[in-house]
Design goal:
Oligomer: single chain
Order of helices and strands: HHEHEEHEEEHEHEEHEEEHEHEHHHHH
Shape: globular
Radius of gyration: 21 Å
Length: 383
């Protein structure tokens, strides 16, 4: 039911308008009677679906902060009982209690939004938004039927390039003076992890030492049944992949947070489902090649300067329906591969060093900051 409601709110401009006007007024009015707690910080990630991403990194770093004993740290989640978060209070997102906590908190930290499409932030509340990636597919108000994004009240918005900054100005209504060109806290680890630690991650996932690793991480697709499900149907001939790759590779398959079901794909010794693995950075670090489509994961992966491929089996359809900020056929090192045969050919005939150099060129264009984003974010938030 919640997914259906979210779908309707995202795709019906009239309902969006009245939802925002009515409930924003109600919570602003309630806020007049709620005193701000100067030590309370409210966190959420991916609308409460996960305990992950940059908000998690900031939260864990705050546990060692000089002010940590005074701070009251609250995580908002769709299913709080499913998460073990030491030193934090857990509440259910979208509940009445959630909105009261939001009105009471001095600080907000989110990878998507805190106000749930509304507008009730107090002037003395400090809002730090880490977002979770921008640059490939259109987002915010650039998406058809979306006009509800308004980041004009975000105090600190983290980006890793001026390219991203322009997206947030144009499609989220963010203000120039509120950007922090820092990179993302979740990516700090990618700038400094040592080989010894990478070997630990491989052993944890029980990857054979003689195998090269491909990470396949496609983005989500819009619901075809009005928000009931967000299925992913990838045109793969598993037998073909097994014949060509089994001797040399293992494939780690990771779905997007919003994907509800994977169709036409069975997991085996070649293709391993790592969708529930808690830290995607570990997967990026151990992999030799990334296969994705329109996901912003390519920007994280390019930090590591390793090859990535774009399996855009529905490229024309996706480009026309969702829209893209960049021409992937021109900007991506190998353009867009429309068929699995093209992907397999590139993998089997890859000049690895040349592909790494292509990624370095891509990185130099789209990654301008990173490595100490967590420190910069916390300093800005608590200053």
């Amino acid at each position: 039911m919640i997914k259906r409601i979210e779908f309707i709110l995202k795709n019906n401009l009239i309902i969006q308008y009245f939802y925002k006007r009515v409930f924003s007024f109600i919570f602003r009015f309630i806020g007049l009677f709620i005193k701000t707690d100067p030590n309370l910080i409210l966190f959420n990630s991916f609308g409460g679906k996960k305990y992950n991403d940059s908000p998690k990194v900031i939260f864990e770093q705050l546990l060692n902060h000089p002010k940590s004993k005074k701070l009251k740290l609250v995580w908002a989640l769709e299913n709080p009982d499913n998460f073990d978060i030491p030193n934090a209070i857990k509440i259910e997102i979208n509940s009445f209690k959630y909105f009261i906590i939001a009105l009471k908190a001095k600080y907000w930290v989110s990878s998507v939004n805190i106000e749930r499409g509304l507008k009730f932030k107090k002037d003395n509340t400090i809002y730090l938004n880490t977002w979770h990636g921008a640059g490939t597919k259109k987002i915010g108000n650039a998406v058809s039927k979306r006009k509800d994004y308004d980041f004009s009240n975000v105090n600190y918005l983290l980006v890793q390039s001026n390219f991203e900054k322009n997206i947030f100005i144009n499609d989220f209504g963010a203000y120039e003076e509120n950007f922090l060109l820092s990179g993302f806290p979740r990516s700090d680890e990618l700038f400094k992890t040592e080989k010894k630690q990478i070997d630990i991650y491989k052993r944890k996932l029980k990857i054979p030492k003689d195998k090269k690793i491909i990470l396949y991480a496609p983005t989500w697709r819009e619901s075809k049944n009005k928000g009931t499900s967000y299925d992913l149907n990838i045109p793969l001939d598993i037998k073909k992949w097994q014949e060509k790759l089994t001797d040399e590779y293992v494939i780690l398959f990771r779905t997007h947070t919003f994907t509800t079901n994977i169709l036409n794909l069975k997991f085996n010794d070649l293709i391993i489902d790592v969708s529930d693995y808690p830290n995607v950075n570990h997967l990026l670090l151990i992999s030799d090649i990334l296969i994705t489509d329109y996901s912003t994961i390519v920007f994280d992966y390019s930090i590591l300067e390793k090859p990535f491929l774009c399996f855009g089996y529905d490229y024309k359809e996706y480009k026309n329906e969702r829209g893209l900020y960049i021409d992937l056929e021109k900007e991506y090192p190998n353009g867009v591969q429309k068929t699995e045969d093209e992907i397999l050919e590139l993998i089997l005939n890859m000049n690895y060093e040349k592909e790494c150099e292509k990624t370095r060129e891509f990185k130099s264009k789209y990654i301008e900051a990173g490595g100490n984003a967590t420190e910069l974010a916390i300093k800005s938030l608590l200053s």
